[in-house]
Design a protein that fits this description.
- The protein has 138 residues and is of the alpha+beta class.
- The chain has a single domain (29-137), classed as Quinohemoprotein amine dehydrogenase alpha subunit, domain 2 (Lipocalin, Beta Barrel), CATH 2.40.128.120.
- Helices cover 19% and strands 47% of the residues.
- It is built from two helices and nine strands.
- It has helices at residues 8-21, 31-42, and strands spanning 44-49, 60-69, 72-77, 80-81, 83-88, 95-102, 105-114, 117-124, 129-137.
- It has an eight-stranded antiparallel barrel.
- The longest helix is centred in the N-terminal third of the chain and has 14 residues, at 8-21.
- The protein is globular, with a radius of gyration of 20 Å.
- The model is unreliable at 1-31 (pLDDT under 50).
Length: 138
Amino acid sequence: MKLLNISTVQFALSLSVLLASLGLGACATTQSSSTEVAEDFLVGTWRVDLRPTPDAEPYFKEFVVTSVQGNSFSGRFYDSPISKGRINADWGKLRIAFMTADESGPYHHSAILEGNKLEGLSNSTGRNFLAYWSAVKQ
């Protein structure tokens, strides 16, 4: 077998053509399917555990996603309206980010879907803390 000297780009293009001809080119996630998965799964009420430490008693609040529009979503988190809710499913897992605010200032939140559970972080710039939280859909 003779080895060919081709560039990485040429190889990638050749591989893409080969996979497409074999009917395997559709393995990549498209923007519309990512959004459909997000909408089907995100919309609804989530039970959020905001305990301050792993050994503390559970402290539950709600995360309610009322709608998904493309890569954006709206709703409420910890009784506050969500602003700038964003969805990204381009890296093999569903990730979200959003903001809320109270009298102390803004909170920046992000989460990743692991199985059927959201695992998130909340950064309070006004109260100077970073908190872990998890949520399951009710």
